[in-house]
Write a structure and sequence with these properties.
336 residues; alpha/beta; 35% helix
Length: 336
Amino acid sequence: MFNRHRLKRKWGRGIEKVSNFLAQTKSHDRVLKDFAWHAIKQNPLSVGHQTKKRFKLLFTILIVSFLAVLMVGIYHPFFYVNKVVATGLQRISQKEFEEAILGIMDYRKLFFLPGNSYFLVDVEEIKNILKERFPIESVTVKKSFSATLSVQIEEKISTLIYDNGKEYGYLDGGGNIVEIIRQVGEDEWIKKTLTTTSTNEKGEVVEEIKILEAIHTPNTRQIVEEMGDYPILFDKRSQTIALNTSVISKEMAAGIIDWFNLLNKKTDISFGHAVIEDGRGEGEIITGAGWRLKVKLTENVDLQFVELQHLLVKEKINLNSLNYIDLRYLGKVYWQ
């Protein structure tokens, strides 16, 4: 006979057993309650301690990661500067110049840091050393990620080519002969001759050529190709030259270099060569077009150049039909 009260008690005991079993397996999540029950609060000191530990761990990870990235950036060969692109070189050897730059970076900073690392290359240091080693007027150094150094320079001219009509030599900035290059060739003279004829005793016609005048004009293009792009000075005094002897003053050498730079860089007038006939400081500059500038080489070069620029703009002179411009007297300019 079915007894529902008996079945109810049986189901009730089963549910109680299951409930007790589940309560035992999750005892750490169970909170005992009584009539005065309230939620258990955590110790605030315990929470702060755990937060500090997590912060220290995170900070340590960040520091280690930063140091790892830094070490890779400094020591990995990918970041070593090993290529130099130099522009503006005319007289300085390209190979010598680029090798010098690589040599400047090839050292250890603080005994263990590679000087050629992209992040440690000091462009100001390179600029200063280059100015000490080479005749440079200005230099710009830029780093290009990740292994290239770009160097733009403007060379300083401290050398002249000296021509006394017999020999060519190099002058330093003080006007002293530092090297004798070669003799002036016969083909570098323009000779005016007179041909006469006569009859000898045998009745033969004899032709005689007499040199009336010999004019030497430096072949500027040939000299530049052979000796370098330096200012050329033709000294008509026919001085004998020897090593380490002075042939012109320091002021005259500086003036010729200044005119060379001003004409070639700031005008469309090309500097051909300079000519002097004495040591008083005056001379002529033969331009590439053939007309002449009469100037004072030892003083007021900048002021003379300003007057030249003013004349070319104001008067709009036709340079193709020009014979000369005389700038020797400040405030008074003559031309023909």
